[in-house]
Amino acid sequence: MALACLLIETLQPGDVVWGVLYEVDSKHLSDLDRIEGGYKRINISITLPNGKRLEAQTYQSDKLTGDPVPFDWYKNLFVQGAREHNLPQDYIDRLNEIPSRKS
To answer: Strand, coil or helix: what is 96?
Structure first.
């Protein structure tokens, strides 16, 4: 069983989720849909650090587990990605505080 990163909309001012935005040619979306099987592609609005708002797409699952704690290897993967893409250190610190479990 694999676990995904879980994002929950809080509607609280100041709550943020940092991430990385990729531009994907539409001809590759069907391949990405196949790779992300079990997830549906949805439209979202994002705000860039400069305040500019964009429409983007992400994948979402409606199948939540009773234990939404990520495996160690998966948590390490998204923490390393945050470091690699120079996301803010305070955000990386918050990611490191997320509990995880052995796979």
So the answer is: helix
User: Looking up tokens 């979202």, which residue turns up?
Assistant: 44
Tokens of 87: 């996301």
**Consecutive 10-residue averages of pLDDT for the chain (103 residues):** 62 85 93 88 89 91 76 92 95 92 88
pLDDT number for residue 26: 93
Tokens of 41: 């592609």
Contact by Cβ (8 Å): 72, 102: yes
What number of CA atoms fall less than 13 Å from residue 47's CA on the CB side?
Answer: 7
DSSP designation for 56 = E
Q: With a threshold of 0.85, does the pTM exceed it? A: no
Cβ neighbours for 21, distance < 8 A, ≥ 6 positions apart: 46, 48, 54, 56
